[in-house]
Amino acid sequence: MYLNCSRCGLSLHTSRFVHIEPGYCPRCLARARVLQPLFRSPMTVRQLNANPNDQNISPRPGPDASALPDPDAA
Ligand SMILES: [Zn+2]
Question: Residue 12 Cα, ligand 1 centroid: separation in angstroms?
Answer without folding.
Answer: 10
